[in-house]
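Reading a protein record of the kind used here takes little practice once its layout is understood. The reader may check this reading against the record printed directly beneath this paragraph.
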Amino acid sequence: MKKYSYIIIDDDAESILKTQTTASGFSELSFKASASNFQEGLELVLEHKPDLVFLEIEPENLSSHLSLTFISELHRFFQEIPKIIITTNKKDKAFDAIQYGVFDYLLKPVAHIDLLKTVLKLKKANFDVKTASVIEEQPSIVIDNVNNVTIPQNIQQPLTICIKSYGDYRYLNAEDICYFQADNNSTDIYLNTGEMITAFKTLKHFESVLTYPFIRIHNSYVINRNYISRIHSGNSICYIKNSTKKIPFSKTYRANVEQIIADFAAGNYLEV
């Protein structure tokens, strides 16, 4: 039977104990350690390399610095980060968590039935690091302009997006995409080369199949966070690297922009 090692990162010691107690009812889960703040949690993940991380993102103690930016920090050190299971008291961060590609989102105190669903999802996804490591094929998302969409189950390599239309296959490296712009029922894809490609899918569709670093900031735009060179909060505008393009962000998605700002600050960062 596959064992999933895990650590718990939470600023509330009682919550850590409750989560661990619930998890102890599953023979598939193996507890490694716990931490109460960002730095301790990062060190534990680097040391133990667990399969799962139970992460609190709305701490009572703000000095713990626990938030979704913890996930961004993990990407600096791992090609494949552990499965992140958010454990918190509120539902209002669920959308933001999805943007970061978390595996699950559980409300505290973690109930046995909710964790059971998570464990079953793990088994269904065939989450096995050793097996995944031998997969050499580069996965892709196929945006079929004629029929339907094929989404990979296990993305281990840099993502390729295929724009398919009547036998014409156009392959794009996701990391080369600066932003997506809605155009009625189609979407214009802008690359770092300045080239634009049209896919006959809605922006909402791309928002649903893509995860971090692609973040929606406006009804008409999904942006690649890695191509943002400047954010002007007063004018509600994001600037694109090596481009004169100015992309507006709306009040509806302001929280996503604030998360981007926090994400930059959590990295190797100097503010002057």
Notes: The longest strand covers residues 29-35. The first helix runs from residue 13 to 23.
